[in-house]
Amino acid sequence: MPPVEAERAQVEDAVAAKIQECDPEQLLESGDFQDILQTVSKEVLSCLDQEPRGQLTNEVHTLIAHRVSELIRPGLDYAARRKGKKTKFSDAPKRRPLRFARFDRVVCLVGGDRQWASGNIQSLNEVDPSNPTVVFPYVVKTDPPQGRLISVPSDENDTVRAEVCFGQREGAMWFTLFCMPATPNKSRRFGVGDRVACAVEDETGDYSSWLPGTVLEMEYCFEEAAKKLLPDWEWDGVHGRVPYQVQLDTGVKVLVHRDEHWLAVDHKTCK
C-alpha cells in the first residue's frame, strides 16, 4: 500500500475506533457513522503534511477525539431517545452560551514559563473524552512555539480572553510579550500618521471592540521593558519590537504585536 494511502487508512481506523468507543452499544445509525467517519478523517488528513508521518501523533489522536465527540453527540442522543436508552453523554452538563466563536483569536492561560499563549479556537463546548460529565467551553490550537491543542476549563477572563492590542489595562505588557509571534512578519500595511482601527478590550473586559487611532511609530522598540519582565528571554533585534504603537482617539497608547487584520485595519473599514 502506498504511504499516503496507508496514512489515510490509519486515520480512518483511528476515527472509527473513537466512534465505537463513544457508542459501545452501537446505537448510531450507519449513515451517521459514515458521515462522521468521512468528515473527521477528511479534516484530520487536511491538517497533516503532504509527507506521511508513519505513526499518528498524540496531537492527532486528541484532534480525532475532540471532533468525534463534537459530531457524534446529536445523532447518538437522537438514536438513544428513540430506543429509550442513555449514552455516555446523557449526564453531561447542558451547553451554555459562550463569549467566543470557532476560529476566534484568544489568549489562554497555559501555565509554565510562558503562562499565557495566543491561538485559534478549534471547537466549542467539547465533552471531555475521559469524563463525559465535563464540558470544556473551548479547545484552542496555540501558536508556535507551543503549537498544540489545549482544553480551556472555563469561559472566564482568568483562563481565556480575546487577543487584542494591549495597552488599556493593567498587565498590558505581559500579554503583549506572551502574544508575540515566534517569527515576526516583516511586511507592514501602515505607516506613521496613518489612521487605523485597533481591536481592544471593551468596557467590560469580556469582549473586544474596535477603536480608531493614529500610528505613532513603526517597529516600536519595547526591549528595555521586556527585559525587566522576562530577563531570561531573547529580546534583542526584531524580538524586542512590535509593528506599531498606536495612539487611540481616547488618548490611550496601545501596541499592535502582529500586523494582522484581526488586530488592526484601515479606520475606514470600521465606519
Quickly count the helices: 5
Q: What order do the helices and strands follow?
A: HHHEEEEEHEEHEEE
**Basic shape:** elongated
Report the major sheet.
5 strands, antiparallel
Low-pLDDT parts are none
How would you classify the helix and strand content by structural class?
Answer: alpha+beta
Average residue-wise pLDDT = 86
Tell me roughly what share of residues is in helical segments.
Answer: 25-40%
First CA to last CA: what distance?
57 Å
Strand order of the largest sheet: 4-3-2-1-5
Which band does the percent of strand residues land in? 25-35%
Say how many strands there are: 10
Q: Rounded to an integer, what's the Rg over CA atoms? A: 22 Å
Assembly type of the chains comes to single chain
Q: How is this structure best described in words?
A:
The protein has about 270 residues and is an alpha+beta fold. It is built from 5 helices and 10 strands, in the order H-H-H-E-E-E-E-E-H-E-E-H-E-E-E. It has a 5-stranded antiparallel beta sheet. A 5-stranded antiparallel beta sheet has the order 9-8-7-6-10, with no helix packed on it. The longest helix is centred in the N-terminal third of the chain and has 25 residues, at about 60-80. It starts with a helix and ends in a 5-residue tail after the last strand.
